[in-house]
Glucose-6-phosphate isomerase
Amino acid sequence: MVNWTNFDALDSYQALKNVDAVNVREVMSGESGAQRVKKYSVPMAEGMAYNYAAKAVDDDILAVLQKLSDEAQLTEKYEELYNGAVINTGEKRLVLHQLCRGQLGKDVVVDGVNKREFYQAQQDRIAKFANDVHAGKIVNGKGEKFTTVVQIGIGGSDLGPRALYLALENWAKTNHTLKMQAAFISNVDPDDASAVLNNIDVEHALFIVVSKSGTTLETLTNAAFVEDALKKAGVDPSKHMLACTSETSPLANNDKFLDSFYMDDYIGGRYSSSSAVGCCVLSLAFGPEVFARLMAGAHAADETAKEKDILKNPSLLDALIGVYERNFLDYATTAVLPYSQALSRFPAHLQQLDMESNGKSVNRFGEKVNYVTGPIIFGEPGTNGQHSFYQLLHQGKTIVPLQFIGFKDSQIGNDVVIEGSTSQKKLDANVAAQIVAFACGKDDENPNKNFDGGRPSSIIIGQQLNPETLGALLAHFENKVMFQGFVWNINSFDQEGVQLGKVLAKRVLAHDTDGALAVYSDLLEI
Amino acid sequence: MVNWTNFDALDSYQALKNVDAVNVREVMSGESGAQRVKKYSVPMAEGMAYNYAAKAVDDDILAVLQKLSDEAQLTEKYEELYNGAVINTGEKRLVLHQLCRGQLGKDVVVDGVNKREFYQAQQDRIAKFANDVHAGKIVNGKGEKFTTVVQIGIGGSDLGPRALYLALENWAKTNHTLKMQAAFISNVDPDDASAVLNNIDVEHALFIVVSKSGTTLETLTNAAFVEDALKKAGVDPSKHMLACTSETSPLANNDKFLDSFYMDDYIGGRYSSSSAVGCCVLSLAFGPEVFARLMAGAHAADETAKEKDILKNPSLLDALIGVYERNFLDYATTAVLPYSQALSRFPAHLQQLDMESNGKSVNRFGEKVNYVTGPIIFGEPGTNGQHSFYQLLHQGKTIVPLQFIGFKDSQIGNDVVIEGSTSQKKLDANVAAQIVAFACGKDDENPNKNFDGGRPSSIIIGQQLNPETLGALLAHFENKVMFQGFVWNINSFDQEGVQLGKVLAKRVLAHDTDGALAVYSDLLEI
């Protein structure tokens, strides 16, 4: 049995309080820096590596982090999770998103259903459906092929799948596997749905309505909005709309839809890219084989997350260093900086993943904790960010730990040598330069041109962003967030913080308001 | 003469240390809350209002903030700025972006050139050029009309113009003033340029190369990348490319371009949307009249920023409340949350504007300051964020001040009544609900469902996002950041923090590396 103990009740918590801080500038300078970059690297799945040379750790701190991992039973808790324990205590649910991408441990059987088989069966059904659409066996009312797929969903039903789609869109075009263009409608702002509908060929579009509960206000509104638009265009909505939902939801087995595909309560929204939620849109866009490759990459990362030795487990190590930075170095934020334009929306996905999972103040038993928990996550692709907010990162008063991601090869492969180097080399030269600039700084007599350095970062390096490496990245961060939640002894799998706003919004729409809410409603003329 | 004094040397700094904190939850509950929402509102330009009822201020704190404004001579410093003082001390430059949108004070004459006339002349030249393109007087090599305009720029030459284009794209379509589709190439990642080129009709595209110095590595690389692609497509680049640069740059008056339009050293990159940088792409996309309306809105906001009474000056008040939160309530971040899908990239622009301007550790004389300066800015449109990172904002351990933006009307005007309300009303109901949820919280016996409240926010409310209100929003935030820089006694108009990375990247590309930099270069196979 594992023990669920508050972080500050652990011996290793006290030990971490007493470790000698590492001076990043000092250790990253000269030959010592070179040695660190060689040494402080962990292989990741799919040929990638997590390099943490520029983090404020050394062998002593790593040893304490290993003790923390052992004492908090982090890998044992992971084992419990994938073997089907009720890890989501608040909602009394299992947490099974990893099972969507492969078997990690025992069979997980709930009410007589083997869950791995259930998830696999949905993927198979979706694969058949997608192949039939691509082959022109499933067609629109006029017997014509569908060319566009539109995801209607919000939060986890939007950010993850959208980030993954954008991450592979150009790779798929280059590799001749872009079967359908995808678009996304998420916001209840009517201009969101209108703009998407104005930009696509509605008569050849398939719409996926994605809501686990089948009751998400924004999504149902947008589904009705689209239904209305289809009718106005003389198109039968039931021939153009799918549902992706739980089997017990009002959207399931509903005549309004061409077909329905299922996830269940054991897949949290922000973890649902691996479930039918991601599978539908990505299989339709790229073909089921590409989705299977994405899952294979994620599964490989899930396997590496089992390793007890933190120096062999990249997501665990990343998690522990993050905890050290958050709780002992007092860094409240983390920037995610992919040097890959294809990952333009990956930071937005990680923002949800991390902040919604670990932005909590109570432990898994509902008791207030006396230490800080999940950080604030933000980020934009480099090199763009360099010409924007990096000023504060380099010279501001607040230190922000940085998570770089870089690839050796581009996706499209179209490149030009200008002044002796390709754009891809320039891109990579910039990320290498930034790590060192942040870590080592540079003295200048003019304080305005002085760089203190000492700003920690890590980098994940891969050969190319493709389905496998993308899947491994997705799982790396999911598992990092999971391990951090275990350290903080919080439930990373519920989101009670989103409820109050929903309740009050309903009251506004029902004109059942008083006090400040009534006046805001008046000001906004609701 | 104004005095440039460090913030912590002011009497009002000490006074702010000693004010009684406001309990947001308490004052925003019940009738007191209703009264605050009515009272704590300042009219903004273009019919908008800045409502700060849910901020942690009261009449006493506001009185001290007024003293701070007077003591730090904030509006006098603004007056110095727009009358042509050398406000950018580090680079010994004037700061004249406001002058692009109208005359605020005296004539500013440099080397015999009246700068307002210079900026106006560029706008007039661009207007004529854009009208000629739209009328088919300026055409491609085959005598055909241009249909697409592509901005090649990075940082301020990208984020601001892109955010403004996206903010008005659907408005322009709806109002039949979308003259050309716009696209943007910014990242040196070759996949960025390749993807844009693959998605447009290159033969009918005009490319604007935007770099004030004419030496920005990423932009010159992408310009060469595009030039190469045009040649491969059998198109003469000089008939498809414009330059937007300073008159002394290598890009100016260059045969490689169809024409060149100019800004000067007194327009910082992140403030350049009002200069030729924004004027070119937006005039080509929407027509010069729309750009003129945008500038009129910004100028109106600049005029309101002159007001000495902080209760009549929304950008000044917003700035001062932000300073109080940053320096005395110790809030290190601020989230920008527009309830408008059209403002999807406006937070990214504000992130640059704020973090690059005020992410500094030295004062305007180059001396280290002993107080924190600019916050970390992030944000996504609501309602999307509600289903993502709002969990942490509601129940996390770190309080994040919130800046909401909302409009009564949508841009496209296409809306549907579903369950008794339009999508626009649902959108607005959500923003009203969130403000109250964050401020007032809600007690629950189950601590996991408990909301402490006390999380401060403000909201800017407008009738509709259109050129005038967008211009006013742009200027509001520019002026807010400017006033905050004045309080902190820093130079908000340079960005020395971006230099070191550039230098090191050049060394990597020249293979002139050692230590950690050499090993990172090896790992990335540069």
Summary: Residues 467-488 of chain A form the longest helix (22 residues). Chain A has a mean pLDDT of 97.
